[in-house]
């Protein structure tokens, strides 16, 4: 997890250590409605321009957020998704489909992937960045605990990896996150008997271990910038098995009910 990407503060009114919700925020209809999204897209373009000229992310978000009088959750959406044009081009050049995992190892940013799917399965909001990556706004700094949708999220990951023909799945879980041991046990239990070799490890810094590797599954900006090759497994899972997730496309200003290219399950 990184300071600019994953370790954002809990939602307003929550204390560290409390379980954070994954479903829709009560203000999302207002904060991410059509008029608000139009303003967010303009803000997104301005943040992108500043990042391309060397401004730090936090400075760019604060400057643009103040100018457009954005709420904290809207600023979080920008923070989670914004990158410079050069970063976007580099990420897209190293993006690969899930089929590239055939006979290969998947290096999985465990909390990053599972939490995003939990949010989608809970009907929560996801934002899509310019490189096509879906990210959540759950705000789970120091407050993670498995929920009812956790098993379904794990099962979908297992099905996607099996369908891609992966030879090995290596889940890396941040040992400092609460309930990391519980999530490890659930992954091992739900994916026991999978056709791929399975490893679930608690580590102090998953980002560092994923840097310089291929077959990476993460939406963490720092990880995407440092890996050799990455796969948008979240997007492929949701396109194939679409839950009731609302996706706000900040790059184009669109608001979707399902990811681009997906269709609702019958």
Q: How does this structure look, described?
A:
By secondary structure, the protein is of the alpha/beta class. It contains eleven helices and ten strands. The chain has a four-stranded parallel sheet with strand order 6-5-2-7. It has a four-stranded mixed sheet with strand order 4-3-9-10, sandwiched between helices. Strands 1-8 form a two-stranded parallel ribbon. Residues 1-19 and 257-266 have low confidence and may be disordered.
Features:
4-stranded parallel beta sheet, globular, single chain, 11 helices, disordered N terminus, 4-stranded mixed beta sheet, 266 residues
Q: Can you list the strand order of the major beta sheet? A: 6-5-2-7
Average pLDDT, all residues:
87
Instruction: Note poorly predicted spans.
Output: 1-19, 257-266
Number of helices: 11
- The secondary-structure element order is HHHHHEEHEEHEHEHEHEHEE
Helix percent band: 40-55%
Rg from Cα: 17 Å
Biggest sheet overview? 4 strands, parallel
Which overall shape is indicated by the principal axes computed on the Cα atoms? globular
Per DSSP E runs of 2 or more residues, the count of β-strands stands at 10
N/C terminus separation: 36 Å
Q: What is the percentage of strand-forming residues?
A: 5-15%
Task: Supply the helix-strand structural class.
Answer: alpha/beta
What is the compact description of this entry?
The chain has helices at residues 28-31, 34-51, 57-68, 72-81, 85-93, 110-121, 150-164, 180-190, 206-210, 221-226, 233-240, and strands at 95-96, 105-109, 125-128, 134-136, 168-174, 197-203, 216-217, 230-231, 246-249, 255-256. By secondary structure, the chain is of the alpha/beta class.
């Amino acid at each position: 997890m990184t300071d600019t990407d994953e370790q954002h503060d809990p939602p307003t009114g929550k204390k560290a250590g409390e379980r954070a919700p994954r479903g829709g925020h009560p203000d999302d209809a207002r904060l991410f409605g059509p008029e608000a999204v139009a303003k967010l897209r303009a803000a997104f373009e301005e943040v992108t321009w500043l990042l391309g000229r060397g401004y730090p992310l936090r400075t760019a978000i604060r400057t643009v957020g103040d100018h457009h009088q954005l709420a904290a959750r809207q600023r979080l959406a920008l923070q989670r998704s914004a990158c410079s044009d050069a970063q976007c081009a580099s990420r897209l050049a190293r993006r690969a489909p899930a089929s590239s995992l055939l006979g290969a190892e998947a290096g999985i940013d465990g909390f990053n992937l599972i939490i995003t799917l939990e949010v989608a399965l809970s009907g929560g909001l996801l934002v899509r960045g310019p490189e096509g990556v879906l990210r959540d706004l759950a705000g789970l700094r120091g407050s993670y605990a498995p929920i009812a949708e956790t098993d379904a999220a794990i099962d979908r990951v297992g099905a996607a990896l099996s369908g891609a023909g992966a030879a090995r799945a290596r889940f890396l879980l941040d040992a400092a996150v609460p309930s990391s041991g519980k999530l490890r046990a659930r992954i091992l239990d739900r994916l026991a008997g999978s056709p791929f070799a399975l490893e679930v490890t608690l580590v102090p810094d998953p980002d560092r271990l994923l840097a310089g590797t291929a077959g990476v599954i993460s939406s963490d900006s720092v990880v995407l910038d440092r890996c050799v090759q990455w796969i948008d497994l979240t997007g492929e899972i949701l396109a194939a098995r679409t839950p009731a997730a609302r996706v706000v496309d900040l790059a184009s200003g669109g608001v979707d009910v399902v990811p681009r290219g997906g269709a609702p399950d019958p």
